[in-house]
Amino acid sequence: MGQPEEKPMLRACSKSDRVLVYAFAHSADIWWRGIENKLHRQEKLKVMRIPSEASQAMAAMAERSMQLQATIQEGSMTLSSHLGSVHFETVVWR
What we know:
By secondary structure, this protein is α+β, with helices and mostly antiparallel strands. 30% of the residues lie in helices and 31% in strands.
C-alpha cells in the first residue's frame, strides 16, 4: 500500500511470485510517472490506483479494533464495516 520506492519493489519482485501495489495518495499519479520506466521489466509486479475519494472514505471508517469485510469482483471492490461501506473500482496501471 502507498508509494514505495523502486529498490524495495525490485527486491520484492526478486523474492516473490507476485507483487501487488495499491497506490492511494492524491500524489500517486506523480509518483507513478516518476517510477514507471524503472519498473517496466518486472513481470511479477502489478500496480493499481485506488481513487482519492475512496481512500478518504476508507480513512473515515478507520477505528481501533475494526472489523472489515471486502468484496472484490472484476476490478471493483466494496469495503464494509458497521460504519458503512465504500465501493470503488481500481485503475490498473501495470
